[in-house]
Amino acid sequence: MATKRVMVLTGGGDCPGLNAVIRGIVKRASLEKDWEVIGCIESFNGVLREPTEIVVLDEKSVAGLLVEGGTILGTTNKGGPFAWPIKNHDGTWTTVDRSDEMIRKLQYMGVDAVINIGGDGSQRISLALSQKGLNIVGVPKTIDNDLSLTDYTFGFQTAVQICTEAIDKLVTTAASHNRVFILEVMGRDAGWIALHSAIAGGADVCLIPEIPYDIEKVKEKIEARYTNRRGFCNIVIAEGAKPIGGEVVGKASTEVGYQHIRLGGVAEKLAADLKNIGVEHDIRYTLLGHLQRGGIPTAYDRILATEFGVRAFEFVKEGRFGEMVAYRHPEIIGVPLAEAVSKPNLVTPDNRLLHTAKGLGIVFGD
Ligand code: F6P
Fold first, then answer.
1. Which of 36, 113, 255, 297 would you label with 160, given CA atoms 20 to 30 Å apart?
2. Residue 216, pLDDT above cutoff 80
């Protein structure tokens, strides 16, 4: 008969490997006689809603989950306990802080600890709840790999694999038609997906948010790839990239509680800008969008997610609250949540892979 209860939830955008973490937690907990695992539906919403939406997670409910994309618990990147959206009489929306009420509710439900699997936004919520006394452990997820103090977040390698396969395909069609191809990839403010897939796919140009680009340098590289109109050029551009002195391409979201600009469209803009400065070759662009987040995790991400899951439960058992599990080769360690969210993990000028890419002649527009 279980005497202690840990609640698991997934927050923010989904990514491959979330289910593998849940499975790791449940399988590890099932080796202990006194722990029960429950899952909260759609991040913290399952506790905040009436009636509550909570499921019991046992070995049977996680069978086969290792390979499944998405999250069986559902997720959201809107609202949350500190900014719960409420509709006013005039149809506008406002937010209220329900964190204290939620913590009381968790006590009433007999929840001894919480494991929050999520990216920077979710771990900021973990930190704030931890500062209010909730026993919470964070697990870093995101395809963007923008969380500090962990070598990698799970989901990232799968996204890189998907982007690399896309470049492999675009290379053959680009070469057949003597075309310039621009592939737009995700990553928000971080250029990791673009940088890794540009190297793995053999791209000629890679434009990332951390390095504002000079479009003339991009044109120069394109022209260098052609002889008498024959040739092709593959460009990878991160959704958050911008020209020197320019702005990111995106629009404000109309979704209630969504706090980011919705990025997208930078590849189309680059294609138009290149035409405007006189590039005469055919230019086509492709947006991978959410294909980068869907489907089964790679073996690497399954392993990392599983390690995170097993260790996260062990942190709970050991009372290591206010920490986030992290991968620091060759160990899985714990880092204080406050440090993990203090600054994002971005591509820096001294980055080893950036050096390699430049050594290959990949142009970043700087
Ligand atoms: O943070 C993960 C991510 O996929 C970003 O790369 C992207 O900008 C964003 O989420 C898209 O969010 P949404 O799923 O809300 O469109």
1. 255
2. yes
